[in-house]
Specification:
Elements: E1 9-11, E2 14-27, E3 38-45, E4 49-56, E5 62-74, E6 88-95, E7 107-114, E8 125-133, E9 143-151, H1 159-162, E10 170-172, E11 183-191, E12 202-211, E13 217-223
Antiparallel strand pairs: 1-2, 2-5, 2-9, 3-4, 3-6, 6-7, 7-8, 8-9, 10-11, 11-12, 12-13
Length: about 220
């Protein structure tokens, strides 16, 4: 799923860019981290951009295979149009196993990627971001989160959303807490944009997910 505007321009002294970021996998996943069975990966860029998704822990790898669209402004360093000030994409991985109400889900580790290193991209760039466990064994091998960063092209934009008369749902991410056992993943709004219509209706579809004791990821849908 992707979201955002198809825009790339200069704003004041900054360079406005749009990336399609695909989170592939985290490996190796050491046995010292067991009994984590399901994890929540939460990504953050600044104060207003964030999202999350849940994955099941494999034998030694966590496969995510999730993508999101990210728009941001890169600030050039003084005297250079091609070098930018640090702009971090932070990746936090939590134990997503169902907890008692009021009990926080445990942070397992973090990784970060400096998006300023990429600037204005013309092709896909593979990245291996070192992953730091909050608690680890001396014998654990070094782990990385593997992802790709590429320019968000027109083919990544929902065909229905590009049509001015479209009634296709619009996907948007919202900030969420990692406290508790359920995590709101995204919301959908279905707006009637027909100008000739006397009234318009909006349906909001909220998704949440949790991982139960059997490592099953359950998706809950609420239509309002």
């Amino acid at each position: 799923m992707v979201l955002g505007l198809r825009t790339k321009s200069r704003r004041d002294n900054g360079v406005f860019v749009e990336y399609l970021i695909s989170i592939k996998e985290l490996k190796p996943w050491p046995t010292s981290q067991v009994p984590a069975q399901c994890v929540l990966l939460k990504w953050e860029n600044g104060e207003n951009n964030s999202g999350s998704f849940i994955a099941v822990v494999g034998k030694d790898t966590i496969m995510f295979n999730e993508s999101f669209r990210l728009t941001l402004t890169l600030e050039p360093k003084v005297g250079s149009d091609n070098k930018f000030h640090k702009n971090l994409l932070e990746l936090h991985v939590y134990d997503a196993k169902k907890k008692d109400k009021g009990v926080k889900n445990k942070l397992l580790g973090t990784a970060s990627v400096n998006l300023a290193d990429f600037g204005v991209l013309t092709n896909s760039v593979p990245v291996g971001a070192p992953f730091t466990f909050k608690k680890s064994s001396r014998n654990d091998a070094s782990s990385e989160i593997y992802l790709t960063v590429e320019p968000a092209g027109e083919e990544d934009y929902d065909e229905g959303n590009r049509s001015s008369g479209s009634s296709q749902p619009k996907m948007s991410f919202s900030r969420r807490s990692v406290e508790g056992s359920e995590f709101s993943l995204a919301s959908l709004t279905d707006d009637d944009d027909d100008a000739s219509s006397v009234s318009s209706s909006t349906r909001r579809v909220s998704f949440s997910a949790m991982c139960d004791a059997n490592s099953t990821v359950r998706i809950f849908i609420l239509v309002t």
